[in-house]
């Protein structure tokens, strides 16, 4: 009898803990800074959903693109749909290139891309943004591109831009190479082949990595920045998640992906020697320091940013990306306009941006983000 009573008490305690944990997860990002909750078509909102303003959003909204922002998008969609019961957001994480193609073909309401639209893509967007509209870039997610590695017996690693370039360009092929050893005098580097993984499809993450290498290690990276991988050799994987999975599994592997993939899979990441007083770790806070120096390069409602990949400021992680949500400034489809504005207002709002830090991303700097919110509200 005493044992049965003890087991009942233990089960009750575990139940209380489970309920408390569920409530804590529901409340994540629930600070209401948007002036009140929304019923989302009649349903009461609680917890994280209380900050969502549905504003008539209903039906299915298709979107696709960047896999770098997938973990942020998963959180956003879950919280948004908890508040807006009549709206369904379906984001397909593939690649920035795929997302832009889908947008310019008119099959999605917005796209995610880790690089802004180029001139030809803006021109193509005018075919689907009616009434003189065009696609614009709305910076929504910031973060470091982590260089993840898996070398058994090596817990920390420092590399600089030149060494990273040589590794991904096939000029450094062993982990005990002199250049790596010089940057890591206390590490026991093995005589092990380097297995470098890159993206197989057009990728904004690749574009940002190659922009960094072109700017900071031009002599060792002879290729122009591009979404398509240009270097020979190495092994390809289709998305950020697939690259991270390969690095996790293969001893001797190295690859690049958004930090949240490293955090979620406990993958070790490289500290970058930028020439600052100390090597810089890949963290959301350090990425924010670099992104804060970005300048708006777009014109009109377009908010494309110019990043400084060669920063030597202490604590500023230079290998960063900004993911843009791409939408029509005007001429959006009437059936999905309300959902596009409502959802992007949430993601750009205080609660949406707060979730980024919790998921190892970096929020967009406040001055730039205020312009994003203003622009989202003006979409038509």
Automatic annotation (TrEMBL):
<dbReference type="InterPro" id="IPR005673">
    <property type="entry name" value="ABC_phos-bd_PstS"/>
</dbReference>
<feature type="binding site">
    <location>
        <begin position="203"/>
        <end position="205"/>
    </location>
    <ligand>
        <name>phosphate</name>
    </ligand>
</feature>
<keyword id="KW-0813">Transport</keyword>
<comment type="similarity">
    <text>Belongs to the PstS family.</text>
</comment>
<protein>
    <recommendedName>
        <fullName>Phosphate-binding protein</fullName>
    </recommendedName>
</protein>
<dbReference type="InterPro" id="IPR050962">
    <property type="entry name" value="Phosphate-bind_PstS"/>
</dbReference>
<dbReference type="GO" id="GO:0042301">
    <property type="term" value="F:phosphate ion binding"/>
</dbReference>
<dbReference type="GO" id="GO:0035435">
    <property type="term" value="P:phosphate ion transmembrane transport"/>
</dbReference>
<feature type="signal peptide">
    <location>
        <begin position="1"/>
        <end position="24"/>
    </location>
</feature>
<dbReference type="InterPro" id="IPR024370">
    <property type="entry name" value="PBP_domain"/>
</dbReference>
<keyword id="KW-0592">Phosphate transport</keyword>
<feature type="domain" description="PBP">
    <location>
        <begin position="57"/>
        <end position="348"/>
    </location>
</feature>
<feature type="binding site">
    <location>
        <position position="96"/>
    </location>
    <ligand>
        <name>phosphate</name>
    </ligand>
</feature>
<keyword id="KW-0732">Signal</keyword>
<dbReference type="Pfam" id="PF12849">
    <property type="entry name" value="PBP_like_2"/>
</dbReference>
<dbReference type="GO" id="GO:0043190">
    <property type="term" value="C:ATP-binding cassette (ABC) transporter complex"/>
</dbReference>
<feature type="binding site">
    <location>
        <begin position="66"/>
        <end position="68"/>
    </location>
    <ligand>
        <name>phosphate</name>
    </ligand>
</feature>
<feature type="binding site">
    <location>
        <position position="114"/>
    </location>
    <ligand>
        <name>phosphate</name>
    </ligand>
</feature>
């Amino acid at each position: 009898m005493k044992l049965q009573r003890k087991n009942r008490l233990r089960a009750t305690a575990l139940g209380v803990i489970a309920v408390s944990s569920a409530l804590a997860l529901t409340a994540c990002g629930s600070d209401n800074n948007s002036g009140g909750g929304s019923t989302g078509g009649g349903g009461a909102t609680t917890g994280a959903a209380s900050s969502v303003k549905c504003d008539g959003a209903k039906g299915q909204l298709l979107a696709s693109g960047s896999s770098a922002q997938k973990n942020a998008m998963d959180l956003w969609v879950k919280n948004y749909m908890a508040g807006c019961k009549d709206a369904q957001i379906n984001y397909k994480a593939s690649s920035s290139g795929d997302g832009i193609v889908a947008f310019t073909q008119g099959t999605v309401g917005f796209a995610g891309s880790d690089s802004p639209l180029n001139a030809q893509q803006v021109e193509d967007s005018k075919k689907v943004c009616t009434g003189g509209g065009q696609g614009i870039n709305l910076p929504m997610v910031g973060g470091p591109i982590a260089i993840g590695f898996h070398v058994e017996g090596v817990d920390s690693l420092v590399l600089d831009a030149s060494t990273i370039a040589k590794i991904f360009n096939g000029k450094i092929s062993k982990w005990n190479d002199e250049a790596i050893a010089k940057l890591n005098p206390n590490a026991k580097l093995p005589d092990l082949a380097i297995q470098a993984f890159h993206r197989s499809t057009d990728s904004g993450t690749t574009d940002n990595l190659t922009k960094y290498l072109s700017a900071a290690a031009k002599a060792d990276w002879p290729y122009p920045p591009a979404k398509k991988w240009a270097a020979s050799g190495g092994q390809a994987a289709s998305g950020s998640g697939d690259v991270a999975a390969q690095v996790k599994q293969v001893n001797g592997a190295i690859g690049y992906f958004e930090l949240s993939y490293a955090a979620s899979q406990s993958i070790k990441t490289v500290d970058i020697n930028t020439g600052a007083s100390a090597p810089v770790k890949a963290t959301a806070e350090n990425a924010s320091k670099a992104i804060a120096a970005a300048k708006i390069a777009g014109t009109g409602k377009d908010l494309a940013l110019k990043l400084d990949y060669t920063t030597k400021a202490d604590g500023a992680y230079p290998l960063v990306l900004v993911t843009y949500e791409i939408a029509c400034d005007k001429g959006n489809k009437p059936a999905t306009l309300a959902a596009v504005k409502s959802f992007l207002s949430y993601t750009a709002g205080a609660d949406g941006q707060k979730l980024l830090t919790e998921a190892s991303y970096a929020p967009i700097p406040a001055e730039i983000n205020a312009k994003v919110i203003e622009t989202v509200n003006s979409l038509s």
